[in-house]
């Protein structure tokens, strides 16, 4: 895995899509790996009892996946400075989460990628990731 | 609710929010485990994140980091409460606001924004400590889910007093649209305070999230409980001051028996000494009775006991 250099990134650069199948295993394993034991992320009965159609992705995982989406593309040494996410519709088990992204800013060595994570119901998460690339 | 009651509720919520903002930053409990490779590996595997700087010591050593680092988006993971979610957790200045909204029918909750800034990556062995600040309350606003208030707070994580990451978190607390039946009326709390001309100012204060102490308008002496005459100069002229809301347990009892209507035992009744110079009796809550002790630093909280009554109580200042 190579990390991109500054001259390989420009405003308008498009990130390759990342498609994640939201199997129950994906929902539960990420909830537990983020230490989130809220029942709606692993217990279908409890999730339905509160009006959700199934268990759904927790926010800590959404943040983790957004980060992964950018570093998968930018490379292992990309330095993530910040992630701002507006949360939308729930990402339910059985759905597919597709990330798309575009570089929208580049100032003083800091790049900003606009990221959108879509599921069948609409935008699950949309926002920006700020990162820097190591000096070569 | 009538328009007047709605306006009163709004004023009360906004006053509470102001007070919680004034509380400032409250430190929580340090991460249960230091930043460690097994938790990073589980996280990376679950996320499908193959970045070697998180898990491969050799690759990490040759990277810009020089050693294994934790994924920055894991910052909140380190200080999550774990399976025992109702177990010992530090109280934060946000709790009272969320509870007040719950108590006022804004029972629905949905997170709307999560913004994290990472000042640097954490290394193995570091033990972040979260500190929470209440940032603001806005509303009521009409939303697709129902009418609600946006509640915003900030968490800063510290490693050895160095801030390593910040988060802004915002939730919408809303009144669910479809009511299954009529809204559940709360069981009225069976014990009511005696409110009279001498004490009314105190309870008005409680309703606004203020802990008010009676003050002699002539000689300035503070007194609690409130009364008609200044014990120092005999003046009947009185006013009040608003206490800072912090105090220290001066003495306490743990009540086990007999049963008290509306309460479950055991509960703690404490005499709390305020820095302003008076003592006040109240319950210590959000803390196992065996952990209460003389000298414990506490701060006031306001609990909605039923549709009308709010009681000031005390919670540990820090855990």
From TrEMBL, chain A:
Q: Which Gene3D superfamilies match?
A: Hotdog Thioesterase
Ranges for domain MaoC-like: 20-119
- Which domain of life does the UniProt lineage start with? Bacteria
In terms of InterPro entries, this protein maps to: HotDog_dom_sf (IPR029069), MaoC-like_dom (IPR002539)
One Pfam match: MaoC_dehydratas
User: Which family does the similarity line name?
Assistant: Belongs to the enoyl-CoA hydratase/isomerase family.
Q: What is this protein called?
A: Acyl dehydratase
What lineage is this protein's organism placed in? Bacteria, Bacillati, Actinomycetota, Actinomycetes, Streptosporangiales
Automatic annotation (TrEMBL), chain B:
GO molecular-function terms, A-Z: DNA binding
User: What are the residue boundaries of the FAS1-like dehydratase domain, all occurrences included?
Assistant: 33-167
Q: Which UniProt keywords apply?
A: DNA-binding
Q: Which residues form the ChsH2 rubredoxin-like zinc ribbon domain?
A: 203-235
Q: Which Pfam families match?
A: FAS1_DH_region, OB_ChsH2_C, zf-ChsH2
Classification via Gene3D superfamilies: 6.10.30.10, Hotdog Thioesterase
* Residue stretches making up the ChsH2 C-terminal OB-fold domain: 241-302
The family database entries (PANTHER family) matched by this protein are listed as: BLR3430 PROTEIN
Descriptive protein name: DNA-binding protein
